[in-house]
Every structure is written in C-alpha cells, then in structure tokens.
Batch of 2 targets.
Target 1
Amino acid sequence: EVMLALSGVAKSYNLGLPGEVQVLQGIDLSVNRGEVVALVAPSGAGKSTLLHIAGLLDGADAGTVGIAGHDMTDLPDAKRTAIRRQDIGFIYQFHHLLPEFSALENIVLPQLANGVARKAAVSRAQDLLERVGVGARATHRPAALSGGEQQRVAFCRALANEPRLLLADEPTGNLDPATSEQVFATLIDLVKATGLSALIATHNMELAARMDRQIRLESGKLVAL
Ligand code: ADP
Ligand code: ADP
C-alpha cells in the first residue's frame, strides 16, 4: 500500500522579479506503508518545499499528491487541514514546543484538540515519553530540557495523534554529532516500532544509510544515488 505518492510535482516561486525560481520539477516519489525513506538534499535543493507539499502545507503548481490512496490535489482547504491534523506528523529541525507547557502537556494538547479524553491523552503522552527515554522529564518545561531531550519530546508530539505518515526536516540537525546520532537512532526505533511510514530529510549520509531507502534531491529534481 502506498502511503505517500507524489506524481509530476512542480513548484516555482514568483518573486516579483523578471523570471521565476523553479524550485521543484517533475517530482515522482512514493513511500510505502511501514517504509522509512531518506530524502538526501544539499541546502537549497528544495527539500523543505517538497516536504511542505507532501504534508499539505503548501500547494504544488502541477502534479498530484496522494495520501493513503486518496488524491489530495483538489480537496477544499478545510478537508486538507483535517487530513493533515489526523494523518500526518511533522518534525522540524527546531522543536517548536510550547514554552509555557510541560513536556507532557505538549503531547496532551494536540490529542485534546483531536477529541481524545484527557485521561487517555495523558496516558498516551507518558507512554510515548518513556519510549523515547524522557519519561522522568514529563513535568519539565522545554527550556529545562537539553536539546536532545527537546527533540525527543517533539517526536512524541508528532506521534500524539497516531498519524499514518511522518515527515521530518533535518530532525536532529540542531544537535551536536554525538547527540544527533543517539537521538536519530531513537527516532528510527520509534518509527519502526509503530509501523509508521516516514520521509526523513537529512544531509548526513551516515544517518540516511540507516533508513530503508535513500532518494536524492538536487536542484529540484530527484536523481539516482
Ligand atoms: P531546502 O529546504 O532544500 O534548503 P527550500 O525548499 O527551503 O530548500 O528552498 C528551495 C529554494 O526555493 C531556495 O532557493 C529558496 O530560496 C526558495 N524559496 C523557498 N521558499 C520560498 C518562498 N516562499 N518564496 C520564494 N522563494 C522561496
Ligand atoms: P546535552 O547532553 O543534550 O547537551 P545538557 O548538558 O544541556 O544536555 O543537559 C544535561 C542534563 O541536564 C539534561 O538531562 C537536561 O535535561 C538537564 N538540564 C539542562 N538544563 C537544565 C535546566 N535549565 N533545568 C533543569 N535541567 C536541565
């Protein structure tokens, strides 16, 4: 079963200057259920744009986006937003946790917004934190956590509502190499244990090699590795 399917996706930005910047051209890619795919790309290659289109945060100029067999291309905005909230988890280079709330609450809140009862939400949040090794930090605010711990909490938040597809943009890019290595291993273990499908962008070839498959984006086109 194909969880994410991009076909002929193209995107350009018109900067109000003569000519336009063609960021993505003819992108065809798919991620199967349970598959963890590395998106390897140098800076400026269009990786963030691609992930935003795959995650329904931005529209393509041409081509189609399919999630779990459904074509998302011409859906009304409200429907796209609902699918994004329910089926897609995002992780960024920076944690983007809410600073005024504890680690636990940062994972509880998205579940409450999704209609989960508080008791069940707290139980799931605590379980997720324990699985990534930060269970003892549940009551701490993000500022009291190390960079690696903050990212681990962000992983839990991304998985809070049991998405089907995980999209990650340099998820350990802010961490020093040793921490990055460990935190990345935790992420892969978590994804594999939950059977999630994932597209994870990194410019680190060693981290990419740990995934099921690697694809490379260069100047807006996918090229063979
Ligand atoms: P990456 O994540 O691979 O570094 P991006 O997808 O962020 O690349 O950007 C690819 C190219 O598109 C860059 O040249 C960038 O400057 C340009 N770009 C990205 N977003 C916008 C935007 N909103 N408006 C204009 N140009 C943009
Ligand atoms: P890292 O190995 O990621 O660089 P740090 O040296 O920042 O970690 O932190 C080491 C430990 O100290 C971590 O467990 C972290 O949660 C804890 N810690 C760091 N800053 C604070 C703080 N301001 N309040 C409470 N605990 C902290």
Note: Residues 177-194 form the longest helix (18 residues).
Target 2
Amino acid sequence: IERTLSIIKPDATKRNLTGKINAKFEEAGLRIVAQKRIHLSAAQAGQFYAEHSERPFYGELCEFMSSEPVVVQVLEGEGAIAKNREVMGATNPANAAEGTIRKEFALSVGENSVHGSDSPDSAKREVGFFFSGLELVG
Ligand code: GTP
Ligand code: MG
C-alpha cells in the first residue's frame, strides 16, 4: 500500500477549506494516516522546495508557503501518489479538470491550494521531511 505527502496550502487554510479538501481525498479512497497544522518559516519552505531553487518563481513560492499555516498530511491507498495528483488536478487551475480540488478551490498557478508528491522517491523524502515513524498510524 502506497503513501504520499500532501500539503493544504496557505490560500486554502486561510479560507477555511481544510475539511472540504479532506472530503475530496476521502471520497477518492485516500486515507489520512497522519496530519498536522504548522506554520513554516521561509527557510523551511525553501528547503522543502529546494528542487525548484533555480525557477523564477522560487522566491514567491517560499514567501507564499510561509505566509500562513499549512496542513501537512500523509495519504495512504492503492496507487496513492498518482491518485492524489488526479484528485488535485493540473498545477494551473485554468487547466484543471472538473471536480478536482484545484478546479474548485485554487486561485492561481501559485496559490493552488494543495501540494502532492510526484514520485515514490519524492514521497519518501517529503513524508520524512515532516513526520517521524511514530506519527504514522496505518
Ligand atoms: P506541487 O504539488 O505543489 O509540487 O505542484 P505541481 O507538482 O503541480 O507543480 P510544480 O512542482 O511544477 O511547482 C511547484 C509549485 O510551484 C506549484 O504547485 C505552484 O504553487 C508553484 N508554481 C509553479 N509554477 C508557478 C508559476 O509560474 N508562478 C508561481 N507564482 N508559482 C508557480
Ligand atoms: Mg511538484
């Protein structure tokens, strides 16, 4: 059974959408096996998104991700990584399919409500970035 790291981003926590977004995960058969609300520093956001450090929007991304609290969570299910990305929808909400989280809730390509790991390697790294083994309750 697969696990993936999800983040409900500041634009969504600010608008009180945590429950509505979690309902989307649960309806898709993803189980929330760990979850906590934290406020990242810009440096922590920068470390998490280090792979994007050369991209032109990196500064804006780190500033946004540290602007308000986020909810970090581990989702579990068959093919959880791909399933979560399907439920999230395209990065740019203008391209996101009907019924996806980003279609319904995202404000822009930057303020796009959720993050999800994009591969087994990144899921392992990203889950370990936020959670200890003791916090993961299958
Ligand atoms: P994540 O699940 O958050 O990683 O999204 P993604 O995999 O769909 O997109 P990607 O990894 O390419 O980019 C990471 C994040 O950077 C996106 O989710 C956006 O929040 C942000 N981002 C991507 N492109 C842009 C952009 O052109 N402008 C701004 N401001 N932010 C961007
Ligand atoms: Mg990504």
Note: The CA atoms of residues 8 and 58 lie 18 Å apart.
